[in-house]
Amino acid sequence: xxxxxxxxxxxxxxxxxxxxxxVALMQAAQRAGERVWVATPADLSVVGLASxxxxxxxxxxxxxxxxxxxxxxxxxxxxWYTAGEPRLLPLGQFIYVWMRKDPPVDEAYLYAxxxxxxxxxxxxxxxxxxxxxxxxxxxLGALRYSHLMAPTLVSARVEQxxxxxxxxxxxxxxxxxxxxxxxxxxxxxxxxxxxxxxxxVTQQQQMPVMAQAFLPAVSAGDKRILLVDGEPLGxxxxxxxxxxxxxxxxxxxxxxxxxxxxxxRRICAELAPALRREGLFFVGIDVIGDRLSEIxxxxxxxxxxxxxxxxxxxxxxxxxxxxxxxGAG
Length: 329
Prior knowledge:
single chain
């Protein structure tokens, strides 16, 4: 089973192969001569034995077809993958395990990271490291670098949030467990329904939310930068659609090719040591107007857009970096 990659993700039939970064990574692993397997978090288990615990997984081997870029998108063959029969295998037989399940980071997700961590104890390289997936909330993790961010408050108290809005005038409210721009709203301090909105998003002051000063620079785009082992290897700019301030591709943002500014490179360099130290091998950060917005560690996206718009073989570079990095199988 040498040189096998297991991808733990949502059911493969639900993935959008021309958009999904996980599919791009699986194809790159296959092109590198690696074997690719898939499973869902529910396929993980562990057996306690007198000789010690043994983490297991029901996994399927898959073979992926080539997906080629075109002027307007991607050429998708049908079927785009074939799968073998599921097998119950020791997790330790896999050299690399990619945890690419999309949020929410709910109880099932957290339990999956605990099971994967048992494999990590046995020497399996889990990407990203399960402990880091638990400790780096994609909104709160960025606050380790609050000096790089727009003014930010995290609170469940309406009075405190309303005061922050009064101070900054125009604010964005983000649920801490959200993804792809879902549930993100913008409001002004003088909006007559602000307090009712704050009561709603905090679930009557029971759930903290993130409030940030609105950055007008978002009209020029929200840059997604993909870091591999701490190094920025590709980026795209995502511009909001008409009448929208959110630039996420899932809510209609339009991707465009981009280069990194000197400040964006400084941000990446400041983050790199902690990302490497904590086993965050594949990370997507969001930057608006040279301000850090989020650090995405669960299932960062953007590879397909970088490859098509920038002409950078990002998935292949990622797998190459993995296979040659310290601790490679």
